[in-house]
């Protein structure tokens, strides 16, 4: 089943259960001081749960563009290294605002997966909140009893407060959740270990796909819980993970969400993406690095393209800086492992827009802007990388022995935005070591200086304010032919 059809099935299914289907909110949040990006389906409905606004319908379903790269949910460093965490992903969700509760939510989740999508029941695991006496929250007996109608007890797992209890904050709505996991291991592997004994194995191919949160309590300022007057359901299912399960593959990158984009990278670079065999090892082998780099690039381009399409340009602070860093991470992986020295990531936007444009028209209407912005960013960062390489060569030439001065590496990082992990990598490849302690010390010294002043920009370079007088400290770097200056107020 194609990804397009899977998404449609979800929305149609919940429409048939009288849900109002709404569009995804933008990925970038402009008016929420607590959150830069939408990181879950429920973010746009927060006010309903808090009782500050009334929803159009007490049942809603949608697919939400999410980005998990900052704050409480930050999956950035996993991306590329596993096969099911993305920066940007779609979260399919259904909601009840004071309408149905556990009974219907669980029955429909099961019906959707096993009847509508015909997933193999034997591969599904569910988790139920085990309770926590110290925190005064009870075992979710109700969910347990409901699941027991569908799932053998051996595949109902008890989960702790960290995984199976959702709270908005220290106070406010909260409640237990039930997750659904899918076991994508081979039949042989499943025959060997399954059921309860699988729990602690934390196998990378037993993947969480759907979280059902049952908001039934309100936590009061004194820490005690009271029943909410109206109970809510908030569910979130990873679309790409669902596609993986439905398309009989064991990596999100092997679904049709990603394969056309990967094919384009292969076409541009002349390199091949090979899949699962190397996913789970972290060998230094070059094919493994190529695979990681390709996963990083095809993941990151989606995050960046959709953020730009939703109005967030890369910039030097706030959300724009997060987007710039994601794109630079992709450029750096390309530069280092695929040998791409010219802009190319922007070309992937055409594929994205063909692939996702039918459902997300913004990627089609903003395509030219998105491409231009990405191309410019690529060109400018590639120049930085190129300059940095030359400077690094000079540093190496002046190095006596085999250990490169950490303070010099810091200078490259601080002044030219040359990433330290890239420095370390290049040094290693040339048979040198980096004096990491020296680098850390220089970094700490700089942080102390910034803290002493007050930092007003979260950038590669800092604008420091200590008083009122500005002194020009020199050009930090040249970007898009604009000189970025470092100004210190003394
Ligand atoms: P995980 O434990 O795998 O990190 P999670 O518990 O953090 O997932 P939830 O906050 O429960 O995730 O989000 C609901 C669903 O969204 C998950 O069940 C999963 O299918 C999907 N999901 C979460 N994070 C990601 C991600 N970074 N990339 C793709 N899908 C994700
Ligand atoms: Mg997570
Ligand atoms: Mg989880
Ligand atoms: Mg979860």
TrEMBL record:
UniProt KW Cytoplasm keyword: yes
One cellular component term from this protein's GO annotations in UniProt: cytoplasm
Domain Alanyl-transfer RNA synthetases family profile positions: 1-490
GO terms (BP aspect): alanyl-tRNA aminoacylation
Enzyme class: ligase
Domain notes: Consists of three domains; the N-terminal catalytic domain, the editing domain and the C-terminal C-Ala domain. The editing domain removes incorrectly charged amino acids, while the C-Ala domain, along with tRNA(Ala), serves as a bridge to cooperatively bring together the editing and aminoacylation centers thus stimulating deacylation of misacylated tRNAs.
Protein name (record): Alanine--tRNA ligase
Range covered out of full length: 1 to 490 of 880
């Amino acid at each position: 089943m194609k990804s397009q059809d899977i998404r449609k099935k979800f929305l149609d299914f919940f429409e048939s259960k009288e849900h109002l289907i709404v569009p995804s909110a933008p990925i970038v949040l402009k008016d929420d001081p607590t959150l830069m990006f939408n990181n879950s389906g429920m973010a746009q409905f927060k006010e309903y749960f808090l009782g500050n606004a009334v929803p159009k319908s007490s049942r809603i379903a949608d697919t939400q563009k999410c980005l998990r790269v900052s704050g409480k949910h930050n999956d950035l460093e996993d991306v590329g290294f596993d096969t099911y965490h993305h920066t940007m992903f779609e979260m399919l969700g259904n909601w009840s605002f004071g309408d149905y509760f556990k009974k219907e939510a669980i029955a429909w989740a099961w019906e959707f997966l096993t009847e509508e999508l015909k997933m193999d029941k034997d591969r599904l695991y569910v988790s139920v909140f085990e309770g926590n006496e110290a925190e005064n929250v009870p075992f979710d007996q109700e969910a347990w009893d409901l699941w027991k109608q569908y799932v053998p007890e051996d595949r109902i797992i008890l989960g702790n407060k960290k995984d199976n209890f959702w709270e908005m904050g220290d106070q406010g709505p909260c409640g237990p959740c039930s997750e659904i996991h899918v076991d994508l291991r081979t039949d042989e592997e499943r025959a060997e270990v399954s059921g309860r004994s699988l729990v602690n194995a934390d196998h990378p191919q037993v993947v969480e796909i759907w979280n059902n949160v049952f908001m039934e309590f309100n936590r009061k300022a004194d820490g005690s819980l009271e029943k909410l007057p109206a109970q809510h359901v908030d569910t979130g299912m990873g679309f790409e993970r669902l596609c993986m399960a439905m398309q009989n593959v064991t990596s999100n990158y092997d679904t049709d969400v990603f394969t056309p984009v990967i094919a384009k990278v292969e076409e541009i670079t002349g390199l091949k993406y090979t899949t699962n065999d190397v996913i789970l090892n972290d060998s230094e082998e070059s094919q493994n690095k190529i695979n990681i780099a390709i996963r990083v690039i095809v993941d990151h381009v989606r995050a960046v393209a959709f953020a730009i399409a939703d109005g967030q340009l890369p910039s030097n602070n706030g959300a724009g800086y997060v987007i710039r860093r994601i794109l630079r991470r992709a450029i750096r992986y390309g530069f280092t492992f695929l040998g791409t020295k010219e802009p190319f990531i922007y070309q992937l936007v055409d594929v994205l827009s063909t692939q996702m444009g039918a459902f997300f028209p913004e990627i089609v209407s903003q395509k030219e802007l998105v491409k231009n912005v990405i191309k410019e960013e690529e060109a400018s960062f590639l120049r930085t990388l190129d300059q940095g390489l030359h400077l690094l060569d000079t540093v190496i030439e002046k190095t006596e022995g085999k250990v490169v001065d950490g303070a010099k590496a810091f200078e490259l990082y601080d002044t030219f935005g040359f990433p330290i992990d890239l420095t370390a990598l290049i040094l290693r490849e040339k048979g040198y070591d980096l004096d990491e302690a020296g680098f850390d010390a220089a970094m700490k010294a700089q942080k102390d200086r910034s803290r002493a002043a007050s930092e007003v920009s979260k950038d590669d370079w800092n604008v420091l304010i200590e008083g009122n007088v500005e002194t020009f400290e020199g050009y930090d770097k040249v970007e898009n032919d604009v000189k970025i200056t470092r100004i210190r107020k003394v």
